[in-house]
Write a structure and sequence with these properties.
Helix 1 crosses helix 2, helix 2 packs parallel to helix 4 and helix 3 runs antiparallel to helix 4. 37% of the residues lie in helices and 19% in strands. The protein has a single domain, classed as Sufe protein. Chain: A. It is built from four helices and four strands; from the N terminus they run H-E-E-E-H-H-H-E. The protein binds zinc ion (ZN).
């Protein structure tokens, strides 16, 4: 676990301990399951759409601190956003955790999500951090197949 010391920043620990929007949405417009076989992280994402806007989203499941905190913070960051905004934030978050080149000046502000920048040093943890995001995308695209990081 020592390799992760630097990743376990206060905000990640807080979201792991007290995940936000950690519940099922009964009768959600969309749901998707995601699984990261490398770590065993497994989440279900629920979302309600109002036209083009994610008016509510939540998650359930279990996983490591990184995956759970990422799911928790994602539900906070994307609430009330349009699909286009979600796409832009997803792309920016993906670039952040994989260490890809910074995007253009028009890139959205990730706010607190920048705490996940440290995972780029650990390829296995990149999967943990991005699982909920891939799962959300599957839900938005209404894919029936379980999302997987593999
Ligand atoms: Zn994990």
């Amino acid at each position: 676990m020592t390799e992760l010391t630097d990743l376990y920043q206060e905000v990640i620990l807080d979201h792991n301990k007290r995940p936000r929007n950690f519940h099922k949405i009964e009768g959600a417009d969309r749901t998707a399951e995601g699984y990261n076989p490398l770590c065993g992280d497994k989440f279900t994402i629920y979302l309600d759409l109002d036209g083009d806007v994610l008016c509510d989203l939540s998650f359930e499941g279990a996983g490591c601190a990184i995956s759970k905190a990422s799911a928790s913070m994602m539900t906070e960051a994307l609430r009330g956003k349009s699909r286009a905004e979600v796409e832009a934030i997803f792309a920016e978050f993906h670039a952040l955790v994989t260490g890809e080149a910074k995007r253009g000046a028009a890139a959205p502000d990730l706010g607190k999500l920048v705490v996940f920048s440290g995972v780029r040093e650990f390829p296995v943890r990149v999967k943990c951090a991005s699982l909920a995001w891939h799962t959300l995308k599957a839900a938005l695209e209404n894919r029936k197949k379980r999302a997987s990081t593999e």
